[in-house]
Amino acid sequence: MLTTPGPVFVRATPRFILPDLPTNFPRMNIHEYQAKALFEKFGVAVPKGTTATSPETFVTALGALPEGPTMVKSQIHAGGRGKGTFTNGFKGGVKFCKTKADALAMAGNMLGQTLVTAQTGPAGRKVQTIYFTVASDIKKEYYLAILLDRATSRPVIVASTEGGMDIETVAHDTPEKLFKVLIDPAYGIADFQIRDLITKLGLAGAEAKNAAKLIRNLYTMFWETDAAMVEVNPLITTPTGEVLALDAKVSFDSNALYRHPEIVALRDLNEEDPKEIEASKYSLSYIALDGNIACLVNGAGLAMSTMDIIQHFGGTPANFLDVGGGASKDQVIAAFKIILGDPNVKGILVNIFGGIMDCNVIATGIVEAVKEVGLKLPLVVRLEGNNVVAGKATLAASGLALVSGDTMADAAQKIVKLVA
Amino acid sequence: MAILITPETKIIVQGITGDFGGRHAKLSLDYGTQVVAGVTPGKGGQFFEYGAHKVPIYNSVADAAKATGATVSVIFVPPPFAADAILECVDAGLDLAVAITEGIPIKDMIRVKRAMTGAKTRLVGPNCPGIVTPGTGKDSFGGCRIGIAPGYIHKKGHVGVVSRSGTLTYEAVFQLTSKNIGQTTCVGIGGDPVNGTNHLDVIKLFNADPETHGIILIGEIGGNAEVEAARWIKANCKKPVAGFIAGATAPAGRRMGHAGAIVGGAEDTAAAKIAVFKECGIEVAATPSDMADALLRAAKAKGVTLT
Asked: What is the complex's ipTM, to 2 decimals?
């Protein structure tokens, strides 16, 4: 029999340690306007908003909003939009406008332009959608997020009276203003936990009632949609007692997308690295980095430590690339093409521990891949494991100008020296 | 004594009729492991035939356990059905469920972990390479191999290895065996943020096992499991321990293949974990090539013989 002992509720308590932020599993991000639409579907109050993807539709979009102060918000997946700068010199990806006429003019400065923020990297992201919302009267700003607490394997609500700020700073400087509520997954969020949290946030009357509804509905959305993280910063109260989610950052557990086709439909490929999309087609796990030594490795832990050992011997890794436990020839060829698509790459380190896999099969794949892509860069190969003698013989007989490494340390030192 | 499993342990393979489960069931049989039953709902009464082996297939874990006396199951079923497969092991009262499956939704694991509170069944994984207790035969054959690790790289002996990563575990085991240092048991606990058995659980088992003379603890960035284990070692473990943390060069906020391996805050970086290891008397391997040597240094300092 499955045993479920009494639920363990944990009161909101000030904590020094935040759960892993932003989150810690493979995830799919969506835009703010998409997140707000989901909020509305689950009964989480947001300011009225509307989107446009071309200058011709600005007027129609704004027509859906009442006359008065309006926010104009660039829609990209990265944070820090308000403090970002467009590559054309225009400052600020999120703007307050006193009138709809001002908003119309402002949107023209943003759409189609590339916005660089602290999170986009220097290349920035092209703004392809503008989100107009009613500019709300703000009485006070709060912070609210729901995510996984790894230490307890439970969902956790993190809230603070210090909204609109970087939450890591709040956690560091004023931890007494941060509250954490662990949710029992067998029961869900309990009313007393919500009351307790709201009291700690200093809310009362209509605000308390509206906040309770918002928190409950937000948790339902988090749970029902397999969200990885829901972050509202700021959550606001208005002079009339409303409680609204002014911003929305939502990501989903990629492993659960198979049961949420409606979420998959929200994916925006414009926001993803083309090389990473290409890699995913071949079941390769690839992440571009800033260095010049490309690595091709089997296994995530080994791939991470291959990057580490390159750095240890004075080099810089150009990427993380895990070809998985059973790499095929096609995967190896695809992997070579992807890493050679990075113009910064000056050398390649292949590190394969063939546990179950036959090293000779991998060696044959490497030889064919190198012949097909016409490699001109230094290549160091470290093969170890099953049938390694035959694998090394295949590499030696290929006539290719590759260098063999005996251990990870030996191979890393050789490639670092070759690109120096 | 090894930990968790011995060469006599009888195991069930859930998903034995699938490609992945079938392939590794064969490799375990080759290794001499007591694979006594398979489970595939709807295929009860059939057999998994391989060479001289004829492994009966059952519709449920409970049926398989009752008929064969198996106490351990290894799970190869696809992600959408894996959580249910784990709970079936709990329901059947098994001692141990080892979930190899990669890509189980996090919500499923949150619910499974909650449902397992207080249950007698231990979970190892998910998204893990499994467990190997080497045998006494050639290339360590005659041992118990649960999961997907290469059996032949092992050697029976006195070192315990625990890691989140598969290939990094093989790397450590290969280094040990190459130096003629054998292992009691090697445990892959998996790379997911919500898993059953953590580093500390395994360290406690190794500490209590008289046959284990030294331990290699392999960790990654993300979470605080390694730190928790290190502090316990400082207070309770007299055996030599070597440690390695992967991910020093991983950029913050990016997932590196393993779902659990991502830097979330100042506490879970490689540098922070390595500092705690040193503070707790764990000999840190400077590079992954240094894992076996690091353990040899730790053993020498404590006057412990590993072979």
From this structure: 0.90
